[in-house]
TrEMBL record:
Annotated CDD domains: Radical_SAM (cd01335)
Organism: Kitasatospora misakiensis
Keyword Cell inner membrane: no
Protein name, UniProt field: Radical SAM protein
Lineage, broadest ranks: Bacteria, Bacillati, Actinomycetota, Actinomycetes, Kitasatosporales
Xref: PANTHER family: PQQA PEPTIDE CYCLASE, RADICAL SAM DOMAIN PROTEIN
Keyword Transmembrane helix: no
Keywords: Iron, Iron-sulfur, Metal-binding, S-adenosyl-L-methionine
PROSITE patterns: RADICAL_SAM
Pfam families recorded: Radical_SAM
Residues covered by the Radical SAM core domain: 1-223
Length: 293
């Protein structure tokens, strides 16, 4: 079963040396994105969609895009660093300049869940992976989401540099009733940056599970902790970059993680504007009926 992730933006507020994604050089017209999304809904009965990065809040018309998806009847999950919820924010990766402030309340009104990252309890740990995002900035974003009552998810990439920090991260989350879920992702050594810098971040399955256990034992009451192993996410992703290119990571047919799955290659399926793109997707063996992350 594959989950579809729509990369709405072509830039980011942070620079993650372990990023798995490919960034498009342009941004597809919103009307093309919505036409494609309508086709996914009508052809495959999809009901949910994840809008991710490049950071979606760097997209100038992110609110019209979200409102359009909402109008199509989609349940929407937005994954963002969230930097310009706090005000105009500097673009740090794959672009220059400043992204305008985006209202968290307006985003929350047309999304079901807002996911923001936290990868360490101190800046020294946090910025090993997610450069330019401080712990204080992420907690300020979380406080704003708490104030408006936005359903929120914390996303943590578990890697070699933060496996001993999960208890301290759990402590930071106390008191935030808006946080419904804490997702832990075992670092995946794929994509241009993730593969290139894999030796800095690789964490084995045993250490990942131990970190997840610590997170569950220390998480605030009522907070669901979801641990996602790398092998469990293999063959799960269908990605659309900001330019509209539809792709999947190039991975072996085996269900378990293999050495050949650790690479920087991708299998290109087409573009959202191609007349036969839905037919190509239908030919895939396992497009999910719920689009998510």
């Amino acid at each position: 079963m594959r989950s579809v992730i729509l990369s709405a933006g072509k830039s980011c507020f942070v620079a993650c040396p372990g990023c798995y994604n490919y960034f498009g050089r342009t941004i597809s017209d919103t009307s093309h994105v919505l036409l494609f999304a309508a086709g996914l809904r009508d052809r495959f009965g999809m009901e949910k969609i994840t809008v991710g990065g490049g950071d979606p809040l760097t997209r100038p018309d992110i609110l019209p895009l979200l409102k359009g998806l909402y109008g199509l009847g989609y349940g929407i999950r937005l994954d963002t660093v969230g930097t310009n919820f706090l005000g105009p924010a500097r673009i740090r990766f794959m672009g220059t300049g400043t992204a305008d402030h985006v209202s968290a309340a307006e985003v929350a009104a047309v999304t079901d869940l807002i996911g923001i990252p936290l990868d360490g309890s101190t800046d020294a740990i946090q910025q090993q992976f997610r450069r330019h995002a401080t712990v204080s900035s992420q907690l300020a974003i979380l406080a704003q989401l708490e104030e408006i009552g936005a359903a929120t998810c914390i996303n943590t990439v578990v890697h070699a540099g933060n496996t001993d920090d999960l208890a301290a991260m759990a402590e930071l989350l106390r008191g935030y009733t808006c946080v419904r879920e804490w997702q832990l992702f075992q670092f995946m050594p794929i994509g241009p940056l993730g593969h290139h810098n894999r030796n800095r971040y690789l964490v084995n399955g045993t250490d990942f599970e131990q970190a997840a256990t610590i997170a569950r034992e220390n998480a605030p009451g009522g907070l669901t902790v979801v641990a996602k192993r790398a092998h469990g996410r293999k063959h799960r992703y269908l990605l659309i970059d900001s330019a509209g290119l539809v792709w999947t990571p190039e991975q072996s047919p085996a269900a378990s993680w293999q050495s050949e799955d650790t690479n920087d290659r991708r299998h290109m399926i087409g573009n959202i504007s191609d007349a036969d793109i839905l037919d190509r997707l239908a030919a895939l063996d396992d497009v999910d009926t719920e689009v998510g992350g």
